[in-house]
Specification:
Helix content: under 10%
Structural class: mainly beta
Order of helices and strands: HEEEEEEEE
Largest sheet: 8 strands, antiparallel, barrel
CATH architecture: Beta Barrel
CATH class: Mainly Beta
Radius of gyration: 19 Å
């Protein structure tokens, strides 16, 4: 009777892992990523202490080859150090995956795009942002991943707004892999 819940978990896991068959058995280390898509949702910390923003951030990443990918991020603020701060990033970029496909994936990359920023005392503006990143992804159960990433946001603001929010950024994501 004790093996019944384990049998259900094994059955569900075996069917979920069919989503990404190149992650199973000996094929998981086949080096092939081309044509795969990662979709993730996670947490991001942006800006320095007195202007800190914590975001709920979504990401997609599409592998154009086994080592090169195109990625995009968008976020909404969860908490902000300054009350009534609006901080909405929309960025696209790319990544180079250092090792061939395996359970652990180390990568370097960069994102560039726009951030909509407004506070109670500053007018709303769209600012450009560039973020070089380094990260590591752990793939598990054939279709899922957890990812940690560190980078440095370089924000360029409109001439009317004299504020610098350039600072380190940290991100953690969970998601699935197709």
């Amino acid at each position: 009777m004790r093996s019944f819940p384990a049998a259900i978990v094994l059955f569900v896991a075996s069917h979920v892992t069919a989503i990404a068959p190149n992650q199973l058995g000996n094929d998981f280390n086949d080096g092939i990523q081309q044509g795969n898509l990662k979709l993730g949702l996670g947490w991001s910390q942006e800006n320095h202490d007195n202007l800190r923003v914590h975001l709920l951030m979504g990401q997609f990443e599409f592998f154009m080859s086994d080592r090169l990918s195109v990625r995009g991020n968008a976020g909404v603020p969860l908490t902000t150090a300054v009350a009534e701060t609006k901080y909405y990033p929309f960025v696209l970029g790319g990544a180079f995956h250092v090792l061939p496909r395996s359970w652990i994936d180390v990568y370097i990359g960069a994102d560039a795009g726009f951030v909509h920023i407004a506070t109670a005392t500053l007018p709303a503006s769209w600012s450009t942002r560039v973020t070089p990143v380094i990260g590591v992804t752990l793939y598990y159960w054939g279709a899922f991943f957890v990812e940690a990433e560190a980078g440095y946001n370089v924000l360029q603001y409109a001439k009317e707004v004299a504020i610098d929010m350039s600072a380190p950024t940290y991100r953690v994501r969970l998601g699935f892999y197709l």
